[in-house]
């Protein structure tokens, strides 16, 4: 049976059923009643084992999730870092079945004072996955409390474009001239930057590219290790083919670009500082490339090349200016 208490301008709702206690706060009683009805129904459907095994703590769930689930994911390293953050939560030692949405909401508000909303949303996504796995696979709880926590609003997608002048200035400060064979790490990074502008490939995809995945005669490269977990073929323009032809093929590990990600980031920041270009990231090349490629490929072909399952996702990166659009109107 749910109980409802008025606290100032909000309503506190508490549920106790089958040994499970849940609570949440709402702006109106009607919202609280709807929530309580839904949760009582979920608890009524829950298997007895889901309630009987509710002595496990969140810390225990974090440890087990990190050992069993995280290693199966592509982003294992970042996931482990976020799990470490969860272990420092003040209620991490509590029984996982008794953790309420209000507690998570309070933690969310504290995190928002330290990190960006997008970071908090990624952390909440992982936390929800952890609770859901514990609910479905381990039967440690009956309800996933993260589902009832309001997510912060993400900032508007980044729409930074790269002008031709900025492109040339970065090449200059990386010590690279178009058409030359790269020798230094900075020059290899410059060539990778140009390839990114031609293909829309991410920095990690380019730096991880090996010669066995490059097919210059057929004008494409094959990516196996991508962000969405699916491989894809990237068609190459004539300029992209020329950039790869200039890369030396003597690297022992077979990589096309002998630059580590950490070194690339440091070199990029150093060159950007010397060039006095504000707020330019290597990843902005993906925005610029997609916007340029949209003038040559239709939406479905572009989505396939970029690796987006949903063509609507291209709108995050497509940033044509009004002047560019007007020039096509005639």
| Unreliable sequence segments | none
Compute the number of helices: 14
Distance between the termini: 68 Å
Count of individual domains: 2
Shape: elongated
Q: Count every beta strand, where a strand is a DSSP E run of 2 or more residues.
A: 6
H-E order: EEEHHHHHHHHHEEEHHHHH
Gyration radius, in Å: 25 Å
- CATH homologous superfamily name of the largest domain? Intergrase catalytic core
Largest sheet: 3 strands, antiparallel
Task: Chart the SSEs and their pairings.
Elements: E1 3-7, E2 10-17, E3 20-26, H1 29-45, H2 48-52, H3 58-68, H4 76-87, H5 101-112, H6 117-136, H7 164-173, H8 185-199, H9 203-207, E4 214-215, E5 220-223, E6 232-235, H10 238-245, H11 261-275, H12 284-293, H13 299-306, H14 322-329
Helix pairs in contact: 3-4, 7-11, 8-10, 8-12
Q: What can you see in these coordinates?
A:
The protein is 47% helix and 9% strand. The chain is mainly alpha-helical and 330 residues long. It has two domains: 3-148, DNA polymerase, domain 1, CATH 1.10.150; 164-329, Orthogonal Bundle (hpI Integrase, Chain A), CATH 1.10.443.10. The chain has a three-stranded antiparallel beta sheet, with helices on one face. The protein has a three-stranded antiparallel beta sheet with strand order 4-5-6. Helix 8 (185-199) runs antiparallel to helix 10 and helix 8 packs parallel to helix 12. The model has no long low-confidence stretch (mean pLDDT 86).
């Amino acid at each position: 049976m749910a109980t409802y208490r008025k606290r100032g301008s909000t309503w506190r709702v508490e549920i106790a059923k089958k040994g499970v206690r849940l609570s949440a706060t709402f702006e109106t009683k009607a919202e609280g009643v709807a929530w309580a009805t839904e949760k009582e129904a979920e608890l009524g459907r829950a298997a007895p084992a889901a309630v009987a095994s509710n002595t496990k703590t969140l810390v225990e769930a974090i440890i087990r999730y990190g050992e069993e689930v995280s290693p199966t994911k592509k982003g294992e390293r970042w996931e482990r870092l976020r799990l470490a953050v969860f272990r420092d939560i003040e209620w991490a030692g509590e029984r996982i079945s008794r953790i309420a949405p209000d507690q998570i909401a309070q933690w969310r508000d504290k995190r928002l004072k330290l990190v960006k909303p997008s970071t908090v949303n990624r952390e909440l996504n992982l936390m929800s996955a952890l609770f859901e796995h514990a609910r479905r696979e381990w039967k440690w709880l009956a309800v996933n409390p993260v589902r009832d926590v309001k997510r912060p609003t993400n900032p508007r997608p980044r729409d930074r474009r790269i002008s031709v002048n900025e492109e040339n200035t970065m090449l200059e400060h990386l010590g690279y001239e178009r058409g030359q064979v790269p020798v230094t790490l900075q020059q290899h990074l410059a060539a990778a930057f140009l390839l990114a502008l031609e293909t829309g490939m991410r920095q990690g995809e380019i730096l991880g590219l090996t010669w066995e995945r490059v097919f210059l005669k057929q004008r494409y490269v094959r990516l196996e290790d991508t962000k969405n977990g699916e491989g894809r073929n990237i068609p190459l323009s004539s300029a992209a083919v020329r950039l790869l032809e200039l890369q030396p093929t003597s690297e022992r590990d077979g990589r096309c670009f002998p630059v580590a990600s950490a070194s690339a980031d440091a070199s990029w920041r150093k060159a950007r500082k010397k060039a006095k270009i504000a707020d330019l990231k290597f990843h902005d090349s993906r925005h610029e490339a997609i916007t340029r490629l949209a003038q040559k490929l239709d939406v479905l072909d572009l989505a396939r090349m970029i690796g987006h399952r949903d063509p609507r996702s291209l709108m995050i990166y497509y940033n044509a200016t009004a002047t560019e659009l007007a020039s096509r109107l005639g």
